[in-house]
Amino acid sequence: METTRQSKINRLLQKELGEIFLVETKKMPGTLVSVSIVRVSPDLSVAKVYLSIFPSNKANEILSAVKESAKSIRFELAARVRFQLRKVPELSFYVDDSLDYIDNIDTLLNK
Q1: Half-sphere exposure (CA, 13 Å, Cβ side) for 50?
Q2: Can you name the residues that pair with 92 across neighbouring β-strands?
Q3: What are phi and psi of 85, to 5 degrees?
Q4: What are the structural domains of the chain?
Q5: Which residues pair with 51 in a beta bridge?
Q6: How far apart are CA 77 and CA 86, in angstroms?
Q7: What's the whole-number average pLDDT of the chain?
Q8: Beta strand pairing status for 32-40 and 90-95?
Q9: CA-CA distance, 66 to 74, in Å (whole number)?
Q10: 14, 25, 52, 84: which could join 38 in a potential S-S bond, CB 3.0 to 4.6 Å?
Q11: 94-to-67, 98, 110, 111 alpha-carbon distances in Å
């Protein structure tokens, strides 16, 4: 069960990380990275960030690049939320493949 504080931090991190990825993906034409879900642990020390990556065939290479630059992303996030949060949680990134799953279900139902 999520507390009110956790849900507020989830929304704040999702918004700010979305803006960070928007700026970064403008440098890579033909690629879109959006933050679909952020889940913060109850002690607010770890945040799981689920990324929706388009095109999905580049998902693994983009995710590995994001994981390599996680410290710089956390630093930029800390600069943006420094007045709202005392400590910025550690970020762990995952691919949100729910859109691919939905597409697969649709194609199976249409057969």
Answers
A1: 11
A2: 48
A3: -120, 140
A4: 4-110 (3.30.300.20)
A5: 35, 95
A6: 12
A7: 91
A8: unpaired
A9: 11
A10: 14
A11: 9, 12, 29, 31
Signed CA dihedral, 14, 19, 24, 29: sign only: positive
| Helices 4-25 & 70-80 angle (0-180, nearest 10) | 110
d(CA 35, CA 21): 8
Q: Which long-range contacts (CB under 8 A, 24 or more apart) does 34-39 make?
A: 36/96, 36/98, 37/10, 37/96, 38/10, 38/11, 38/13, 38/14, 39/10
Residue matched to tokens 């979305």: 18
pTM as predicted: 0.86
Token pair 């069960």 is found at 1
The per-residue pLDDT for range 82-101, each reduced to its tens digit, is: 999 999 999 999 998 777 77
Residue 28: partners with Cβ closer than 8 Å, 6 or more residues away: none
87 token code pair: 């400590």
Cα(82)–Cα(77) distance, integer angstroms: 8
Q: Is the pLDDT of residue 45 over 80?
A: yes
